[in-house]
């Protein structure tokens, strides 16, 4: 983990240098999940350094798992425009990290998005990109009888 920034909470500042992973570990996890290797492009490095080199034409599911304010902000700015209308965004750290939550709400405000993420569990939430596609269809968390129901 890189150093946390000013927008992040106190706990975030204790995580620098922890949770070190590798490309090999990632490839092993993907193989265990049955993901075909030719469907994956792994780009190693810090988000600020690698995002300018990556172009994604269309995203159905964007899983944002980067804990801190600055990387969440960068991830949403870079990849949300490629999320298909009706596609989903999972915010892995929305419920637990102040910086992740702040970056998300600032992104919504700057982009004029009237969105309230739905809790998956105490740490993670999700939302559906407005527009054509699958928007409007009921999904777990959007109707009575399911965890996190908002109806």
In a few lines, what is going on in this structure?
The chain has 151 residues and is of the alpha+beta class. The protein is 25% helix and 14% strand. The chain has one domain: Rossmann fold.
Second rung of CATH, namely the architecture? 3-Layer(aba) Sandwich
Unreliable spans: 140-151
Task: Supply the helix-strand structural class.
Answer: alpha+beta
Global outline: globular
Radius of gyration equals: 16 Å
Could you explain how this protein is built, in words?
The chain is 25% helix and 14% strand. With 151 residues, it is an alpha+beta fold. The chain has a single domain, classed as Vaccinia Virus protein VP39 (Rossmann fold, 3-Layer(aba) Sandwich), CATH 3.40.50. It has a four-stranded mixed sheet with strand order 1-2-4-3, covered by helices on one side. Mean pLDDT is 84; it is low at 140-151.
How is this fold's topology laid out?
Layout (H helix, E strand, L loop, with lengths): L22 H10 L14 H4 L8 E6 L4 H11 L3 E9 L6 H13 L7 E2 L5 E4 L23
Parallel strand pairs: 1-2
Antiparallel strand pairs: 2-4, 3-4
Kindly list the characteristics that best describe this protein:
alpha+beta, globular, 151 residues, disordered C terminus, Rossmann fold
């Amino acid at each position: 983990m890189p150093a946390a920034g000013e927008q992040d909470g106190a706990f975030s500042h204790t995580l620098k240098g922890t949770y070190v992973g590798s490309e090999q570990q990632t490839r092993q996890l993907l193989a265990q999940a049955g993901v075909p290797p030719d469907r994956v492009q792994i780009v190693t490095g810090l988000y600020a350094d690698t995002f300018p080199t990556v172009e994604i034409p269309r995203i159905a599911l964007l899983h944002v798992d980067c804990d801190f304010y600055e990387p969440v902000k960068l991830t949403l700015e870079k990849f949300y425009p490629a999320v298909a209308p009706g596609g989903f965004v999972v915010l892995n750290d929305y419920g637990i990290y102040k910086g992740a939550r702040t970056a998300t709400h600032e992104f919504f405000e700057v982009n004029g998005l009237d969105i309230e993420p739905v809790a998956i569990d105490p740490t993670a939430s999700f939302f559906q990109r407005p527009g054509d596609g699958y928007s409007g269809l009921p999904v777990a968390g959007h109707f009575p009888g399911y965890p996190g129901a908002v109806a």
